[in-house]
Design goal:
Length: 260
Amino acid sequence: MKKDLKEKLTFLIAAKVDHEDRIRNIRTTLSYLRHHFDANIVISEQDTSSKLHDMCKAFKCRHIYIETDEFFNRQRGVNLAAKEATTPVIAHYDADILLRPEQIVGATEAIINKRAQLVYPYDGNFYDVPETYFDIINETKDLRNVDLNDCTLFNPHSVGGVVMFDREHYWKCGGANEHFKSVGYEDNEINARFKILGTKIMRTQWPLWHLTHARGDTSFNHNPYINFNRDYCLEIQNMNKVKLQEHIDQWDWHKDILVG
C-alpha cells in the first residue's frame, strides 16, 4: 500500500545527466518512489540543455532547470530544491538510490516526533547493485529480491546517498554548502558541521541500495576539484562551534533564507 507522506516529506534530487546510465537510473528511482509513496519530489537539473523535463512531467515531479555549462554544483542544486519545499521533512536524495519503504517512513516520523533533526535512513552499509537485478527491481519494486551477496559493499560507514532533515533545522545550520564543487566530501562536511552545531542525529536499520552506473564527470573519481573539497572539509571539521557559525553566517544562500 502506498504511504501518504504528501504533507510530511519532500525528496530533493540534484542531477546532471553525464551518461545514459543516469537517465536509466533516475527513471528507476522515480518509478520506485512513486510506487511506494505519495510524496513531493523536486528535481533540480543543471545542464546546457534539459534532459529530464519530460521524465519529470511523467512522474509529476517539480522540475527546476538551470541552464549552465559550469561544472556541476550538487549542493546548489539541493538548496534550490529545498527552497521549493514546504513540508517539515526534506531529504537529500541521490538519483540512483533505493531504500525499503519502512526506512523512509521511520526516518520521517523520527524527525516529525522530534526524536531527531537529521536521519540517515539506513545502517551505514552502502551496497552497489549490479545491472543483473535492475529488471526484477523495476518489475517488483521489492528490494528483498536483491541478494546482497551479489552486490559490492562500497562503504560500511556511509554518510551519503540519502540524508533526511528537519527543514527548519536544515536552514538554521546553513543548508547544503555550495562551496563544494561537484561531488566528493560534501556528505562528510554535512555530517561534521551538523554534529558541531549540536544536531540530534540517528540512523535506521537495513542498508542502502545504489544502482550501479558508468562514472562520468559528476562522479567523485572524475572530479578535478576533489583535493579542494577534501581540504575544505577538513577545515570545517577543525572549526569549533563559534567559528563555524561565523563561517556559515557569511554564506550568501544562508543570508537569503534569513532575509526571506
